[in-house]
Amino acid sequence: MNGNPKGVIANLRWSETFAALKHYNYRLWFIGQMVSLMGTWMQSTAQGYLIYQITLSPVYLGLVGFVSGVPTWLFTLFGGVVADRIPRRTLLIITQTFMMLLAFILGVLTFTRTVQPWHILVLAFLLGVANAFDAPARISFVIEMVPREDMTNAIALNSTMFNMATVVGPSMAGLTYAAFGPAWCFTLNGISFLAVIGALVLMKIQVSIQRLRQSTAMVELVEGLRYTFKHRLILSLTGYIGMLGLLALGVLALLPVWATDVLHGDVTTNGLLISARGFGALISALMVASFARLKLRGKLWTIGTFGMPVMLFIFALVRWLPLSLAVLVVVGWFYMMITTNSNTLIQSHVPDELRGRVMSFYSLIFNGSYPIGALLAGAVAQSLGAPVTVMITAALLFVFAIAAWVFFPIIRTEE
């Protein structure tokens, strides 16, 4: 018997890190989605660098983020209603197939050297439409793949797979872009969707009897919103996540500018910057998964809200690539500490029959704040420069962290 209690605890935590993977459906999802996400990050990285090469304008970087997010505001809440009305697996297969076709179209346009900025903007808008319906279904689909006791672990592992893709995808994009051009990044992304579509088809999902819908979609949408606005914890977490998307994610849209104008690098530098943030987020997500059954979620969330703006301010001052990468690793660590714990805290309080609609509001606020933030960050960077933009962002995030500590103590006391 191990006489070292700390050793026993360490082994227990490690064994629990991947608890959700013991379930067949979730294993399929994890593998298929991770492959697809690597392709998605390849396209996102290459697309940002391509449009910056074509236009040489930070404003266009913000504009791509903006047009991709407009459908979030238009359709996400309705997407949550759809996710509560039809089988979520069916909805996911439809949305993932549509995204695959958009990637192939962008690949063809780039291969034939006919791609123009407006092509990228239109395809980004259509991808945003698909995401508006995909996100609520994807977030609320977790409970259909694992039992409730493993839900927190599965959500944390979803963050893990996302950030593993963030580490690998942008680096692959940088190398592929430099060696073969952006068209191959888009084409490989299209191919990668086959992995997640195949995983969804192969799942053994228990067919549940859909309750008879006696009310309209609008009435059900209002029902979900009413629940969200009456629940103080859900509303406060969702509000903060909106500020995080508006400020922090908006700044991340400037990384192509940072790579070229601040660090005097190239497309490979851009990929490394994105991967560094993803690596930090990956480590953070694994830690959250390991401690899923410990009662630390509110405390970890609070640590993240104070730590992230401090590291962003340091990042704004650094001009040496290795140190910039190291700082972004820590930024990613704090970022994931906030987002993963926000998601799990909200889902632990949501009844199953409202899950799609409540999480669609969460997705709306989180994803919908990014395009506005990207547009603002691009405009401010055009006038004041990227470093000053990051400093302003860091200061505002720190103010919101203090506000959350003072006015919403309920969050840090959550277990």
> Roughly how much helix do the residues carry, as a percent range?
over 70%
Overall morphology: globular
CATH fold-level assignment? Growth Hormone, Chain: A
Order of helices and strands: HHHHHHHHHHHHHHHHH
The tally of beta strands, per DSSP, is 0
CATH H-level name... which superfamily? MFS general substrate transporter like domains
CATH level 1 class label: Mainly Alpha
| Alpha carbon gap, first and last residue | 31 Å
Question: What is the annotated CATH architecture?
Answer: Up-down Bundle
Number of helices: 17
Mean pLDDT: 83
What class, by secondary structure content?
Answer: mainly alpha
Describe, in short, the structure shown.
By secondary structure, this protein is mainly α. It has helices at 5-17, 24-55, 58-85, 88-111, 117-140, 142-145, 151-180, 182-202, 217-230, 232-252, 255-262, 267-290, 297-317, 321-347, 355-384, 386-407, 409-412.
Describe the protein:
- It is globular and about 50 Å long.
- Residues 1-12 have low confidence and may be disordered.
- The protein has 17 helices and no strands.
- The protein is an all-alpha fold and 415 residues long.
- Helix 1 (5-17) packs across helix 12 and helix 13 packs antiparallel against helix 14.
- The protein has helices spanning 5-17, 24-55, 58-85, 88-111, 117-140, 142-145, 151-180, 182-202, 217-230, 232-252, 255-262, 267-290, 297-317, 321-347, 355-384, 386-407, 409-412.
- It has one domain: Growth Hormone, Chain: A, CATH 1.20.1250.20.
- The protein is 84% helix and 0% strand.
